[in-house]
Amino acid sequence: MTTQMSPVNVVEGSVATSSPATFVPYGYIYITQNRVSGRMYVGKKKSKTFVKSYLGSGTILIRAVKKYGIKAFTVKAIQWAFSLAQLNEMEINTIFEYRNFCGHENFYNITAGGFGADGNIHTPEAKAKIRAKATGRRHTEATREKLRLASTGKPQKSKGVPRSPETIEKMVRALTGHIHSAEHKRNISAGVKKAFESAEVRHRIGEASKGRLVSGETRQRISASLMGHSVSESSREKMSAAKMGCQSALGHTVSEEGRAKMSAAKTGKKWPQERRDAAKGRVPWNKGTPQTEEAKQKVRATIALKQAANTK
Hints:
Elements: E1 8-11, E2 14-17, E3 27-34, E4 40-45, H1 59-68, E5 73-81, H2 84-102, H3 124-134, H4 141-151, H5 165-175, H6 182-196, H7 199-209, H8 216-226, H9 233-243, H10 256-266, H11 273-279, H12 293-311
């Protein structure tokens, strides 16, 4: 087997060059071998010196290291490169030659090298197998707790990064016509209710909402999107059924303690100038709309209940 060799060699974890101070290594090709099974892994590492502790980042290799232990593996550098293009080309050639000589089954590599798994496209059959294996899979409570703890305090990678119009268009197309199943809706509802059971979560939401104002531009967009929108009869029936049996504020008397809290919260507060300017000249949405007899009866019933509650 012929192997391209670089004019530099590894000497006790450092780099010795055959020509003085003219070659600055970009990285090296290494081979990791399992002493127990004899299986190998060929990879590349961007470094000016040989890193003895680095065995590789291949998925199957990492599983093997967890299974056999790090002491069951040896690693050595076999080639040095002086650019990214040369390093990628060396990795492709080395993996090809070693696989042909030793057999594909004796390696942990799953790609041909170059850029790792980047650009590696799964076949439709492979996608179907992955989908079938992942369908119905649920994280255990212990795993969820570990994931939660691992992400606590870490900012989201996309936080503050605006989405491009192309990305937004793709998301819209992907979600258009998508309807959650009844089970999915129940799971979402249960998750939200469980989150709000925590006093810490409620406190965080309250703190985040303090002082938050909706800009005039956003108000106009919301108004434009709702213009001419009417709730269908089926939606009205669903809303009515959902509220059936729920305790409402009708006839409810606020305690003295509650009144004091509300008064203290509003004392000295004024609308921001932006909100006051936005309210100027605004026409009430129901101005000029005559009330139906049914609406009048509801108003009368509400007033009667409040009067009865105040006389108790």
